[in-house]
Amino acid sequence: MIKFNRLKVLSEDFKIIASALKKSKNLLIEVSADGLKIRRSSAKPLPENTQERREDMKSRSVYAKGFPLDATLDEIKAYLSTYGPVEMVQMRRSISEGEKNFKGSIFALFGKKEDTQKFLDSTEPYKGQELLRLLKEAYFKSKEVTRKDRKADGGKKKSEETKEDHTNNITDDDIKEKMERGMILHLNGFAADATRESIKEVFDQYGTVAWIDFVKGDSEAWVRLTGEASAQTVLDKALEAAQGKLLVNDAEIKGNVLEGDDEVAHWKKLLQVQAEVRERKKQGRGDRRGQSSGRGHRGHGGRGRRGGGRGGGRGRFQNKKTRLESGSDGEEAPDNGMADDDTAESRKRPLEDGGAAAIDEPTKKQAKGESATGTTTEESAKREETNKPESIAASE
Predict the structure, then answer these.
(1) What is the pLDDT of residues 209-234, one digit of tens each?
(2) How far is CA 275 from CA 249, 265, 270, 272, 282, in A?
(3) Which residue stretches of the chain are H helix?
(4) Among 13, 40, 382, 387, which is least packed, fewest CB within 10 Å?
(5) What's the pTM value of the predicted model, to 2 decimals?
(6) Residue range 125-154: mean pLDDT, rounded
């Protein structure tokens, strides 16, 4: 607890802090007999992080804007208390030149829904300044709409509210809005052979392990839990099952739940890593666009690339031409297997009787059963029979 800044301002002497806690009327914290140790009272355990509880807290959480930049936490809390008991007030800050400056807006958690509604319905100014009052959930929804509108407009239109909250750096207040409180376990004492799987096996049976920040060989790890069971609940159940001695790979492990500045610092590191991963994925998708240029994009000409088109490759013209040596005009003819010394005359079809007239007049169609000489097939057969050699006739 002495890591909290507000407590440091009052005192860093643990004995004085323990003495003041003993006088507390809410009995939330117990002090050991020697006055050196404190813990949450077992009579008032930490509420379970159930869906019902989260919805209840949403209905009692408000956002307010318009406070003077020099307003203090005590002044704002005193003003809000006029509407009813207040459980929490968070002053939203931005970092400028290494300093955290109040932005003039807050988040607050009232003890009752009726008091929350009373505050939202009020129009009473704070020291003469009008306040913007919204449920915290409604504020985040309006911010989401604003971001979508800005994205649709290409970033050209920005409201004053958007300019106030937009920053390239993740601030502590931004982290507190997104973080799940009480869900980080810090463990140390691991052996050299410890693995993420062996760590998860110990705690996963009592809650839902979302992430383990651990490098094999290190002696410490951070376990982030999610769901209804808080980190303290999971740690207590694990210790109870192990009879107070938590072992991982035969090494005794000590652990605690991150709180205060340590918790904020861990969440800041986590959110920064997540943002970097998203940016790398976004750039990777952009680099892959436009690499493919359609059919034939490899630079080989696409379809028919071997010959520069559909006629290329296998369908290429294969018949060779040979120049005739005796041709008067040097004309070319297909190479049909003749020798080069064959003359054009030997390759020409001889003319029938009648010379050029035979060429001009087409040959008459043969009658059925006639040969080319005009005789019938029967007469031809008899003639062939009589012309057979004697040796053949004798054998028949």
Answers:
(1) 988 889 888 999 999 988 888 888 98
(2) 34, 15, 9, 5, 11
(3) 5-10, 14-22, 51-60, 73-80, 113-121, 136-152, 160-165, 172-178, 196-203, 231-241, 260-288, 344-347, 356-360, 377-386, 390-395
(4) 387
(5) 0.39
(6) 88
